[in-house]
User: Fold Xyloglucan endotransglucosylase/hydrolase from Punica granatum.
Amino acid sequence: MAILSKSLELMTKTLLIIMGMLLAVHATNFFNEFDITWGGNRAKILNSGEVLTLSLDSSSGSGFQSKNMYMFGRIGMQLKLVPGNSAGTVTSYYLKSDGSTWDEIDFEFLGNVTGEPYVVHTNVYTQGKGDREQQFYLWFDPTKDFHTYSVLWNPQTVIFYVDDVPIREFKNMKPKGVAFPMDQPMRLFSSIYNADQWATRGGLIKTDWSFSPFTASYRNFNAGSACVLSPNRRSSSCSSSTAWLRDGLHPKEVKKMKGVQKRFRIYDYCVDGKRFPSGLPPECGAL
Ligand SMILES: *[C@@H]1O[C@H](CO)[C@@H](O)[C@H](O)[C@H]1NC(C)=O
Assistant:
């Protein structure tokens, strides 16, 4: 018995070490992948590049952006949002291209007073035009642990995921005359800022600066499935397996997404008739 459990223990340990090594190979380093763009030392890269934190205080927020640009990809990382009283703060996390007719795929996390739910605000801009908001509550407390927020963007579709659960899809509906992000590479951005004019209950609750600094944390950036335009190369190089370029949701995942939307979606522009008196946007017919 003792021998058996010893060898089991050894096996488990070996497995853990191997898994650790695999993770180490995959874990990307924040120093290599991102530039801090504003906020000075309110943005910090820690643990030799494993973790990044962004803070907001009464004089400034902070932000970072990816060094690389991406032309399609499955791109994501883990975030742990501002704990406690975060009302009035917004942590934004998005892909965006340059120029005045930009494309953008947005996650924004709207803080709340202690114990009340964060709102995940999403939007899709194509050719500089957004107005495609959907908002969700989460099925967990996003301030307790790290959770993965990612986007699959390929020529067919844009899918928003929370911990591998699809919450929203924006399909390519070019044939219906809806612009789709097809030809402008995007960079990943994130920032934390004060938005107490509008963020929490429509601006009703103000940021309480006695709780500052407000800090969000990031780790495990993953753009392993993406086509990358590095700053010194204008040509794009894709990861060896590009199956994700054709990926979409399987029927099971569509079902899962619809379940999440039914239970956790609190706003959908596609059913906001009041906002679009002359008719809902053309993409709203599908799905
Ligand atoms: C904050 O909590 C209130 C009350 O539960 C809720 O109505 C609101 O959606 C929450 N989130 C934000 C960002 O206001």
